[in-house]
Amino acid sequence: MKQPTVLTEPKPAPIAPEFDSHSPEWYLNRELTWLEFNKRVLHEAEDERTPLLERVKFIAIVSSNLDEFFMKRIGGLKQQLGAGITELSVDGRSPQQQITECYAVVREIEAKKQQLFVELMGHLKSQDIRILPFSELTRAQQKQMRDYYIQNIFPLVTPQAIDPAHPFPFISNLALNLLAGVYCTDPELVTLVRIKVPVGPRLPRFIQVSDDFVYVALGDLIANNLDLLFPGMNIAFADLFRVTRNAITEKDEDQADDLLQMIESELRERKFASVVRLEVASTMGELQRGMLTAELNLNEHDVFIVDERLAMSDLFQIAAIDRPDLLDAPHHPCDHPKLAGAPNIFHAIREQETILLQHPYESFVTTVERFVKEASRDPNVRAIKMTLYRTSAATKIVQYLIDAALNGKQVTVSVELKARFDESANIQWAQRMERAGIHVTYGVVGLKTHSKVIYVVRQDYNGLRRYAHIGTGNYHAGTARLYTDLGILTCDQDIGQDLTELFNYLTTGLVPKRQYNCLLTSPKYLKPALIEKIEREIAKHSPKAPGLIQFKMNALEDADITAALYRAAQAGVKIDLIVRDTCRLRPGIPGISDSVRVISIVGRFLEHSRIFYFQNGGDEEYFIGSADCMKRNLESRVEVVTPVKKPELQAELREILNVQLNNQRSVWEMQPDGSYVQRQPKNEQDTVGAQETLINLAQTRLKKAGSEKKLKKSKKSRSGSRLG
Questions:
Q1: In 70-177, which residue ranges form alpha helices assigned H by DSSP?
Q2: Is 491 exposed, middle or buried (CB count within 10 Å of its CB: 0-12, 13-18, 19+)?
Q3: Distance between CA 306 and CA 126 in Å, rounded?
């Protein structure tokens, strides 16, 4: 018998939640998303596809990142608590809620890091690389290391007793310390002693025992030779600990008579700033741990017990061991095809008008450093102006600027003294340049100068011409080999005029609302311009001609930009975000952000470049610059974002975006709840990471340019022989 047909009502489509751009539920927390980034970095230490010593390096990176997180982010949240601030963050969390949730995630990361450390030490042992406890050395090795200690370390070690006659000593930020207990005859009468482990540039954390890759930790070496410090006494215990201090000690710049003196004062205060974290070895007794906690004015939840090894950022030393078979294949940045073989960089720029630079795939030394070097020596160059946020002794740019001043050129440098953790170095650079006759300014009161700009005025054959470099990264030779950054070398007239206005503002602080032809600058213009362009994309979007926005940056933290992107997504605009770490926006929420994709790239280089792309109804716009979509960048820093108009260079930026968006090896996709899932390669071709692909593309561009030059030369030669 035929069964009757049962009619069922179709299931209703899911109803999109009502969108209120002020509702906390749509915003992820800045601190927690940054910690999520460190989980992704730590995964590189777990990933067996990563070479062994590179895996060790990623543990060191995460350790260093967490140190900075406590100094800056936890330090800032604790200051808010101390000031009685109860205002909630845009994601609806109080300062105490953020600290509590961050601590839970940090403990999770630390546990994973400790587990990975044990695993990697096992793998290193199979490669004859070992960090051995002193007790596991042979007697001959122990004697050898004791002799080494007496000759090279013992004179540097200073014990400090902690008793009624000796108050609790000052503990330096991130310094490694031993807390020892010593007694004469009665073990009940123990004296506590603090010993600072003198790790420094000339005394590494891990001391090589022999010509083989066998090491002993410096703290372990000291702890096992305490009889030299306390002859005739008994050692009850000796355990490692270290503290992290708050790095947020900024004063009111408006009240400062001298910015240089204010920064120097801040540095002194930071040295003695309050402690925000105590790390102790798991071997330390509860009584001693409690004493340290009380003396440092901390709570129990501020104490982190470490099972394996403290201060794992020191593992950079192990990661640098000369074992090429355990490292990534060496990367040598190639020359830029438009500059290789060009006898004069200004002629090459003038011929091209604008040249796009991709670091570290293309050499920083033969592009940016060369630009300043030739400017310092070129008799036709009249003036050089530059912003300096971070640099290093290995970077020759400061010397070239000094050479330029000595060669009679007008040289002006805007030095950002408040570049976090580079204040002391920047003071020294500023003083050195001033002594050479360079006009040094310290930017605009109340704003950090974060822009990356070099501006050169040259007397060309047809009058004064302005040349410039505008970049996404610092003028730092070291990071130029480790960070992915973009820049342009240009003689574009509109950009040159805008930079004239910019430097007049930087050197005076006057007339912040200047007229710019094409540059997007903060704090006045960049944020409104980005929001206006997002709204324009919404207006031009249609089912037949869908809109497209693509941003690549380090962080999306600004609530207004996030809200504007949500509005675009609700209108149906497709949005691709390549965000390295902090991202407040939640992708893939039905009816709210279906059209948004958020990915993060983690690889051998730190992603640092910024690209802003708007489809604009077919009249495409590309921008690069120094700013992330963070409130501080958009509202309290001087940033420069420049358009890239040349079709050939737009194609290069398109290639970068496509490579990263489509890669299957090094890409993590954000889920609606803020977690990330790593893409898995589907075939053999997908196993190459995005950064390795860009290395290959840069080398291909250079080879192609070389072949074209040879072909041109050959044709010219044949043409000349026929004429002859």
A1: 75-82, 95-126, 139-152
A2: buried
A3: 25
Report CA-CA distances (Å) from 396 to 21, 393, 455.
48, 7, 17
Could you list the active site residues? 450
User: Which H or E run includes 362?
Assistant: none
Burial class (CB in 10 A: 0-12, 13-18, 19+), 230: middle
Token output for 673: 């709840």
Alpha-carbon torsion 122, 126, 127, 128, what sign? positive
Phi, psi values for residue 600, rounded to 5°: -135, 135
| 3-state SS, residue 700 | helix
Q: Is the dihedral of CA 475, 481, 486, 488 positive or negative?
A: positive
Phi-psi region of 254 (alpha: psi -120 to 50; beta: other; left: phi over 0): alpha
Q: Enter the pTM of the model.
A: 0.92
Q: Can you count the helices (H) and strands (E) in the chain?
A: 19, 27
CA distance 479 to 705: 27
Task: Give phi and psi for 670, each to the nearest 5.
Answer: -75, 140
Residue 540, CA distances (Å) to 68, 614, 695 in order: 43, 11, 36
| Cβ-proximal residues to 93 (8 Å cutoff; 6+ apart), any chain | 24, 29, 101
CB under 8 Å to 237, separation ≥6 — which residues? Answer: 179, 180, 181, 283, 284, 285, 288
**What pLDDT, in 10s, does the model give residues 524-568?**
999 999 999 999 999 999 989 999 999 999 999 999 999 999 999
Q: pLDDT for 8-58, tens place per residue? A: 444 444 445 677 888 999 999 999 999 999 999 999 999 999 999 999 999
